[in-house]
Amino acid sequence: MAADLGADERTNPVEAARAVVAGRHPEARAAFLGGSVAAGRGTATSDLDIVVLLDGPPAPYRASFLHGGWPVEMFVHTEASWHGYVERELPRRRSPLLWMCADGVLLVDADGLGARIAARARQLVAAGPRAESAEEIGDRRYAITDLLDDLAGSVDPDERLFIATELVRRTGELALAAAGTWSGGGKWTARRLESAAPGLSSRLRHGLREALEGRAEPLVVVVDEVLGQVSGRLWAGYRRSGTV
Q1: Which sign, positive or negative, has the C-alpha torsion 26, 29, 35, 38?
Q2: Which residues share a beta bridge with 67?
Q3: β partners of residue 65
Q4: What's the predicted TM-score (pTM) here?
């Protein structure tokens, strides 16, 4: 979230996060500061992502607010709801809640729950996401192939903008799935690709720039290289059964 407060107006992030927890939930069993700030990759518009563990109500809930010059996103859970939310997120191969506790700064640990949650989060992160099924990979191949066809036939620059940007996003996600690594949304897609497929983000960016100027070939070449890791394009012969 972008804030209209300058970075020089902000208090120390860890101190600010501790103050937020103490002020809003002094009874917290555990709390973490996660996200970009905790990872040392904060920007002038970064917020404080804070996970708080309580014994019971009002958890679970999430809230956004300002504190000490910082925009704050707070995720409040019980021990049971934390595990429940993480379990629901894992099949999607991305879990912000999991990473906030695996890589975050432990702010509060009143009874050892924080240490247990951190250890479990790191264990799950290290184990990696589940492998995508052949059917799921096929769905990705089909969607990207369809976009490539749309791009090839596009003569409208406005349509090309949305086709090409969607193609870049889906190709990055396919590269992460093919590498068997965790996925992410927005900036985290680029960050995950840094280690999973070095240089791919830069090539996709260059290809996107060229595609928006009407030169699709550089982007098509990169996309086809990623598709080549999972048996290439897929359109003819694609079939999925529906549900009643």
Answers
A1: positive
A2: 70
A3: 72
A4: 0.86
